[in-house]
Amino acid sequence: MIVAEGLTARPTRGRVRLGEVAAVLGGAALLTGSWLVVAAEERVPEWEARLFSAVNDAPDALWPIVWVPMQLGSLAGSLIVSAATGAASRNVRLGAAALVGTAAADGRCAGRSAPPGASSMKPT
Fold it and tell me: Could you give the count of Cα atoms lying within 13 Å of 86 in the half-sphere of its Cβ?
């Protein structure tokens, strides 16, 4: 505890900020809404299906050329999200946890070309 001018400051550990709660709930609602739209229609938009096919049907010779920028983008994105999380929350441990989480997610998704079930969805 910090004592200043005869006052004892209470630690703020465990205090919930309304803005943080609103941001988490809002993000979760948007993500859930996007999943529900795709699941309900069992389709992805035509433009998304065309783009997905165009990228995945590209010649294999392009793979060595695009691999390095893809890895750098993944690393940079992970670092930016983690730094933003730490800065917004003013919590170094939370920023570090975000870094570990993004690295773990990146490792789990490596080698995947599409989300599970995406190949069975029909374009609109």
Answer: 14
Q: Are strands 43-44 and 3-4 parallel, antiparallel or unpaired?
A: unpaired
Q: How far apart are CA 121 and CA 41, in angstroms?
A: 9
- Between the alpha carbon of residue 21 and those of residues 25, 44, 105, 119, the distances in Å are 6, 31, 23, 35
- The position carrying tokens 């997905």 is 52
Q: How many CB atoms lie within 10 A of CB 95?
A: 19
Query: On the CB side of 59, how many CA atoms lie within 13 Å of its CA?
Result: 3
The pTM score is 0.41
Q: What digits encode the pLDDT tens for the residues 84-115?
A: 888 888 888 888 888 888 877 766 555 554 44
The DSSP line for 26-71 is: HHHHHHHHHHHHHHHHTEE-HHHHHHHHHHHTS-GGGHHHHHHHHH
Task: For residues 52 and 48, give the distance between their C-alpha atoms in angstroms, rounded to a whole number.
Answer: 6
**Helix, coil or strand: residue 109:** helix
The residue written with tokens 């948007």 in the block is 30
